[in-house]
Amino acid sequence: MSGYGRRGSRRNEPGSEDAPARKPPADMEAFAREICLRQLAMAPRTRSQLADALTRKEVPKEVSDKVLERYSEVGLIDDEAFAQSWVRSRHANRGLAPRALSAELRQRGVDDETIKEAVAEIQPEDLESAAHALVAKKLSSTRSLPPDKRTTRLVGMLARKGYPPGLAYRVVKEALTGAAHPDEDDDLSLPD
């Protein structure tokens, strides 16, 4: 095969002699703004996520910094608002606890102080209530398991969502003994 067909083509592979040289855009700043706007149109982004997108597109750092600074000034990039919104949404919809939320925000490039402020909005009673709701939702699907495996499964589910071990064990124990749900017909004894 000559190398020009659809399969096995080497024409556009990096390093091949036939690969066209990448021509930089005439207006790099406009190019950077367009990248940022496309990213922001898909979903809210942190400054770090946008900087990474610009780096991948080989936008020079000075141009990237200028565009990102301007977008921060006009409010298109706001890591504090992003973090607060992320925490509210992920805690309400997925039941995530501060530890898991902090890890997710860190992955998105949010600084530690901003993360700390955002997760501080979750009140202890809200955290416990969310843990009870998660366990109640999962309780019936673990009914056929032996008590020790059932406890392990439920505590593990809460741990993966970032709940502290003490709270996780207490909530699961309450759910399994019926203290949290007196109408629930669960007990810890094995069937005869």
What do you see in this structure?
By secondary structure, the chain is mostly helical. The protein folds into 3 domains: 28-73; 79-119; 124-177. It is built from 9 helices and no strands. It has helices at 28-42, 47-56, 61-73, 79-94, 98-107, 112-119, 124-139, 147-160, 165-177. Helix 4 packs across helix 6, helix 7 (124-139) crosses helix 9 (165-177) and helix 8 crosses helix 9. It is elongated and about 70 Å long. The termini are far apart. The relative contact order is 0.08. Mean pLDDT is 85; it is low at 1-17 and 184-192. It holds the Pfam family RecX_HTH2. Residues 78-118 form the RecX second three-helical domain. Belongs to the RecX family. Residues 32-70 form the RecX first three-helical domain. It comes from Actinocorallia longicatena.
Brief summary:
Helix content is 60%, strand content 0%.
